[in-house]
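[Meeting: bench + compute handoff]

Bench side (C.D.) handed over the final construct sequence. Compute side (W.E.) agreed to return the predicted structure before the next meeting so the bench team could plan truncations. Sequence as handed over:
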Amino acid sequence: MSTGVSGIIYMGKKEESYEIDTSFYLEKLANKYRIGSKFGGNVSEEVYRNYSDETEGGEMVFEIMDSPLDTYAEQLFEPDTYGEYETESLYSRMERVQSMLEEIVIYKNIDKIIVDLNYLFGFKEKEICVKVSDFAEVVSSLYKENEVFVPIMRVIIRK
């Protein structure tokens, strides 16, 4: 099964110019941490549709992928037990994601971030709230509970 990682960034402002500036900032962060990403109208139609009940304006839907060339995040979020990231542990990969999220959360007028791991494929198992500084530790520990599988969860991150 492919690993879908998506979510919503809740922004305090609903102005188009702010959303455009924020999207350029988010792209810069994704490149800095070598994470593929799509924002706003560039996310897949399926993902955008799945968040329609949770967005009213002033939010930005996003997807995280392995690279700008991929459509999923199966290598970035795969367990240590298999895959191509032999030199980078799951915890190290989650630290990269955490670093990006830490910079997003401190950006002006960002209220909260929701990150869904395989949450949109019809399974809604676990919802957790974490401080952004605990993201890598918490998410990595949930992999240990599931042993080999990518956990299905919604992570809510507040300032």
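W.E. noted at the follow-up: The chain has one domain: 5-158. C.D. will use this when planning the next construct.
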